[in-house]
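REQUEST FORM: STRUCTURE PREDICTION
Request ID: SP-0412
Submitted by: Lab K.M.
Chain count: 1
Length (residues): 293
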Amino acid sequence: MNVLSDNNEPVTKRAKSSDDIDKVSCNVTDILEENNIDKNSGCQENANLTDNEDEGTALLDNDEDDSLFPFPPDDDITDMLQGVKYDGSFPTITDRYFTPYYKLNVQCLGDDICILMHSNRICMLTLAPSHVVFRSDTQITKIDFKVSDKLDRVLNKVSGKSKHGAQPLQTNSNICIITCSNGQTYKIKCCIIGKLVEVNEALLNNPKLLLEPPHKGGYLAIVLPNIKLLDKMKESLLTQEQYNVKMLECQNAANHLEMSKICTNSLLNSESEIINNDSPMRCSENLDTVQKC
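STATUS: Completed
RESULT:
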């Protein structure tokens, strides 16, 4: 057994091991240095990103600053309306979504009813502008929806899409009773077949509200017409154009009657003046005849 070889062998191995350790330590040192460089570069990149964000925020703040973009004063907007076709009035909700139909002289002369039909076929019942209530000098003092001892339209209760429990209506069904200051009363007819949805209860406390346009509360009731009979009911009513023609004819007839009265009165007055002027002459002639006799 070679003792020397045995003793030298571990020394060589230890020497190699020490060299390896040195190499490993050098590699570790290099890796740490590289990590430090990466960290430093990462920190630098984060700092750059932070600076960029601050710059972006500053830009946003500048964009939101209204003082950098002054606007002209808007005290006068007349120049903005020069390119808009405007005739002085905008259409109301009733004008835009409702189609008017009219029934004239329902019970008496001047008892004119207006039925405003929505695009979904719901109807708003009101008085026509030519109704005798609006043409007279009297005022509306009371509107009563209790049309009989057993039937009160205010108690109408509906539920569901089909309006279950609603009071049925015929063309001759009374909707309300209007009382004027001169004691005259008018029973307003429905003029269509359907179901009563609701009545305008605001008229109970403020009857003069009926003088307002329908979209401001000047209506009587809301009615769901019978869809199957709707087209037939439309045929018995007047459209807006037909109503305007009728009103023009009535106005011309009224003007003609007024002119006839004026002409008749003027003729009667002229004849009376002629008679009065001739009477003194006749009296003097009669006096001379008597004296001669």
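NOTES: Residues 1-7, 11-16 have pLDDT under 50 and may be disordered.
Reviewed by: T.R.
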